[in-house]
Amino acid sequence: MLDPNALSQLAALKNQFDEAKVLLSGRVRGTQNRYGFVVTEEGDSHFLNPEAMKKLLPGDQIEFSLVEQDGRSQAQPEQLLDSSLQQFVGRLVEKNGRKWVKPDLHGFNRWVALVHKGAETAPVGSWIRCTLKRHPYEDGRALARVDAILGDDDTPFIEHLVAKARFDAGAEFPAAVQREVAALDPAAMLAAQDDYEDATDLPLVTIDGRQTQDMDDAVCVAEADDHWQLSIAIADPSLFVAPGSALDQEALRRHSSSYLPGETLHMLPPEVAVDLCALQAGVERPALLLQTRVDKASGAASDTRFSFARIRSRAKLNYTAVSAWLAAGQVIDTEVLPAPDGEVSLSADDLLAGLQALDRLTARLSDFRQQRCMVMPERPDYRLHLDERGHVSAIEEEARNRAQQMVEEVMLLSNHLAARYLAEQGVGLFLCHDGFRDDQQETVRALLEKTLGSAPQDLTEFSTMLPVLQEARARQDLPLDRLLSKFYRRTELGTRPRPHWGLGFSHYTTVTSPIRKYLDLMLHRQLKALWRGQSVPELGAEQLELLQAGQSTQRAIANFTEHWLKTIYLKPREGEVLAGSIQHVTPNGFSVQLDGLGISGFVNVKGWRDREAEFDPVLQEHHTGRGVFRLEMPVQVKVQSVDLEQRNIQLEIAG
Predict the structure, then answer these.
(1) What is the CATH code of the structural domain delimited by 87-152?
(2) Which UniProt keywords are present, listed alphabetically (predicted)?
């Protein structure tokens, strides 16, 4: 037995050893295997062995030291700093008479024990929503509680139910929000805005999808010899959504409307978004009014003015009809809109003349962007048609038509002008796209030198790089602009205006969808305060963090649901050979998007065990014994396997 002095000496040595440790911090990233990694803020990744991962969850923030074990440097957890995983969804499973949940989480493949209460009535195989009751850090044993039974694989629209639970994006609004909405008096609220201008005489029309009900913008154009006078009215929910109210807080939490196949999850309740704010034909509505002059010779906008007004849309038009009218040179199969007093307010001739002027204006705006900014290549959309179970019955490819391109040009201009005005006033929130990632600068330089012959000394200066990016876009022999886009940073939300490299704008934000996006709603409040000469409201740090987080997850729920449904749709076609094109390249292989379906799967080049295979990280090409594979290259692929559990599609090159 050691005497007290020896024990004291050992304790002192241990303290000295602990003090000598170099401690790092990072976030845990799981894998589909038992091991994982911890990634520091600097982007360094360190291995976590299976024993360490038993005590950790994906997303955990930990303090760790580095040790040598099994001939490699490994991370050894020292302290759990924070755990972001509180709620999750998964499948209920049973083993040895006890019920567990298999979490549906990327990088987490262990079962979690369930508290008996709540789990006893849940059928095995059902989808459930759970709350974590005990973290496994202390003893490696996690414990969860069943909050809701979502259904099983035969439940209609189960994929939608799981997606909404996974992203905490239910369609129902809290009771406090419903009470606030019921108490709104829109007529009195609009009447009280005695400083709103009367713009009901403007011949504004909305142009949207045929089924759209939450129309949030209307437009009209007056054409002169040397310019166009453009008026854009944008719905004004800021009149009905009081800052700090339950409705406002819920809108911020949701961040934006989400468009799932066959279902819309609104940021604002439909009673507000549609019944009070949507720019319905023949109905007086409050709106943000942007008016600007566009010079015919230069395509530049000037004399821009922002105000708030009462407007009345003259007609609800749809993209398909407008495109057909412009192609035919006449209005086909439509009715003129009667004004409230029964008189015709807009003739077919006036309607067509206004649309043709808008077409000429937006063509000039497009030319201006082609010369001065960046224009991304047109890509089709894909509409999923669902059956009564919520599964895909057909996929329809939809090319963007003339009317959609017109509206897009007007919205891009509106957002750019709003960003420029807010920047001049020293306020605003901006969408900033800061060019290439720091760790990819040398790769970008090598790519430009190999393809264009030279590269600017400074790859971070927007004004220097813009003509280079335009030259890259013009290349016909290879998709150089797509190659460069692989090395871009993510778009970020900032309070200081910075360029948006992807669009080629010196300033950019969004104000044209305040019914659907909280950023736009917040900027409407700032624009209204500036217009009235009042102090400009700003977001607090916590609100800004929520909004920033929402930027990265804006389409996550829709992407998750669409991919799951597409995976189910493709399962019966295993073994078929289909045409597609390469859309993304990694050192291990490349993803192929199937023509006419918009479904992507992965071709694993590493699995070929091809001794001739080489990967070019600059041109993003695989040189193999079967040929060279590069971005946008058409290929024939066989659907090798569709894993419904992992929602994974594996393809292989046919032939």
Answers:
(1) 2.40.50.640
(2) Cytoplasm, Exonuclease, Hydrolase, Nuclease, RNA-binding
| pLDDT score for 344 | 42
> Quick one: pLDDT at residue 334?
56
- Give pLDDT, residue 615: 92
**Alpha helix stretches (DSSP H) within 533-594:** 541-553, 556-570
Q: Residue 293 carries which side chain, given as an amino acid letter? A: R
Are domains 24-82 and 87-152 of this chain identical in fold? yes
What's 574-653's CATH class? mainly beta
Output the CA–CA distances (angstroms, integers) from residue 588 to 439, 600, 649, in the order listed: 20, 16, 15
Instruction: List Cα–Cα distances, 271 to 175, 214, 367, 521, in angstroms.
Output: 14, 10, 40, 17
> Tokens at residue 198, please?
């009367």
Tell me, what's the pLDDT at 606? 86
Cα 336 versus chain centre, distance: 38
Predicted pLDDT at 515: 96
C-alpha 54/C-alpha 186 separation (Å) is: 56
* Angle at which helices 441-452 and 462-474 cross, to 10°: 50
* Predicted confidence (pLDDT) per residue in 435-475, tens digit: 899 889 999 999 999 999 999 999 998 888 888 888 888 88
Number of helices (H), then strands (E), in the chain: 17, 31
Say if residues 514 and 234 touch (Cβ distance below 8 Å): yes
Q: Can you give the pTM of this predicted structure?
A: 0.88
Rounded distance between C-alpha atoms, residue 405 and residue 414, angstroms: 14
Q: Where are the domains of the chain?
A: 24-82, 87-152, 175-424+512-558, 435-488, 574-653
For residues 344 and 336, give the distance between their C-alpha atoms in angstroms, rounded to a whole number: 7
3-state secondary structure of 63: strand
pLDDT at 9: 57
**8-state DSSP, 383:** E
- In one-letter notation, the amino acid at residue 417 is L
CATH class, domain 24-82, is mainly beta
DSSP-assigned states of every residue in 488-549: BPPPEEESS---BTTTTBSS----S-TTTBHHHHHHHHHHHHHHHTPPPP---HHHHHHHHH
In Å, what is the CA distance from 162 to each residue of 111, 149, 331, 460?
18, 10, 45, 42
List Cα–Cα distances, 265 to 215, 261, 262, 280, 392, in angstroms: 15, 11, 10, 20, 19
Which positions of the chain have pLDDT values less than 70?
A: 1-20, 333-345, 373-377, 552-554
CB neighbour list of residue 174: distance below 8 Å, 6 or more residues apart: 246, 250
Token output for 316 = 């609800």
